[in-house]
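Quarterly update from the structural biology core.
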Amino acid sequence: MRSRRASARAAALVAALAAWGAVPAAEPSRDAYERAVVGLEITFQTWDEDRPWAKETPGSRDASAVLVDATHLLTTAQMVDHATFINLATFGRGRQVEPRIVRVDPDINLALLAVDDPAVLADLKPLPLAERTPTSGSLNTVRWRGQQLESAVSRVTRFEVERSWQSRVEHAFLHMRTDISNGGWAEPVFQDGVLVGLTVSQTQQVSRAIPVEILRAFLDRARAPGPYVGFPALGVNWQVNRDAAVTRYLGQEGEPRGILVRQVPWGTSGCGVLKPRDILLEVEGHAIDAEGHYRHPRLGQVRFTHLLAERYRPGDVVRVKVFRGGRVEALAMTLREYPASLDLVPSRREGQPPYVIAGGLLLRELDLPYLQTWGKEWSQTAPVNLLTRYWLFQEGQTPERRRSVLISTVLPSEYNIGYQGLHDEVVESINGRSVGSLEDALAALAEPQGLYHVLGLSADSTRREVVLDAAALERATREILESYRLPEAGHGREEPLPPGGGDCPGDY
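Predicted structure, tokenized:
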């Protein structure tokens, strides 16, 4: 009798603790994960950056996705990047179904897919999104591997504010120590049967995931009617403010606080509002310390840029306080997106590289995909003149100079004899006109300087200029296309350059 009473009391105590949250709820059955997680078999094909009229050999990758409602799947943008075909795999088996891409936001690294035939997902059931990402405890990272569902324990270690994939958007990422091997391929992460994150990378046994707050914000915007609204980025270059001598020099008294603005690129949220040598003290009442952190109510001290991605949208006006010229000023800043295409040397490009073949000179724009043709060690092996532009002037776009235009190589012919060895040289002007994009180059080539086309090269080039016979240019180009069996003399930009905005002359 006493043992029965003790058992009843123990059961009642466990139930009471569970109700108070002291005992975690029971983990859902394996069947729940089987019905919520799918596999993606992705075929992709990238462009040949050295021969921009051709494509590389197709490749393939396997990724995960999670069902977020009756018809939609969530995965990462980098998994569907350059995808030519996506095959759905449910319960570990491939289906003859290609999900439709609804929305891809590379700046936040998320993609929403849809399956239009409801019968395909009839046996599946979505799991709900958590209200917030847990800051401690054990989680479950889930994926299909072959026809077996893997569910591995992952333990929260920390949150760290970092840039999203090839983007200027910054937000807190969930870092975990995980038992899953070779992860980071958009595996969903759960706690107590609710979705708390989606992995984006893994090094050895440490994985990194987009937290549920960012997932929910993306889903709300991706499923809303009307144009998609992305995520804002400050886009300003800044440094920590730990040097008391610097702060005294700028007139700030007491302990250093706030961060020191170094540069304000054109088109960023700070353009026209912030200035170099401003000390940014507050954003919407949140004080920023000398390390660039603010006090988040759940995550503790994190970098202040997370505040913008978590709470605001492009177009929102936020109040900021800066220390400028010896006094504190209150300012209003309209938040903007900062897509990769706002960089002078963008880290990402949509579609085929734009290029022009003029008399055998292959003209194209400098971007990270081109630099990566020098292999895994591109940051050491690519030409110094190109690396300098990437590392030092990547964000230095202006309304007049949107891109760095290169002569990437020369297709030898009798017409361009003497220039055959020219490659990876930056073009500053054509026929006396400044060149700040491929469109500028085309317009300048339409107006030769008398009998010649004169291409002025940058000061770090091996030559000062290239001079070509203007009357023979078109005929020579046609002959070169025929000789090298090339499909066309050029390809235009697939997406127009973004408008940018703001008035910040000389602030970069």
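The longest strand covers residues 148-163.
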